[in-house]
Amino acid sequence: MLLAVSFMRVRVEGLEKLDPHGAYVFVANHGSLMDIPALLATLPQQFRFSPRRAFSRFPFLGTHLERAGHLSVDRSSPRASLKSMIEARASSAGAASPS
Question: What b/e string do you get for 13-35 counting C-beta neighbours within 10 Å, with b at 16 or more?
Fold first, then answer.
């Protein structure tokens, strides 16, 4: 809806190359604030974002991101960022394993 009311059109190429059962890392270069709506509107895979940890402090937004399974990254230092990514990998591996 955001794209439509902004009169923005998105052209996607190469979706046919994606394996529906494959695992991917999609990277947006944040060329504009519309990267996120464009990804949400066009990618057929279910995916999660890795927002900076500061967003978790915003009312409603932080709660939504956490409940939806998005994995925040602490960008205060390279070591903190790496630790966040290791924790994200461990939590996603645990979620994927059968109980």
Answer: eeeeeeeeeeeeeeeeeeeeebe
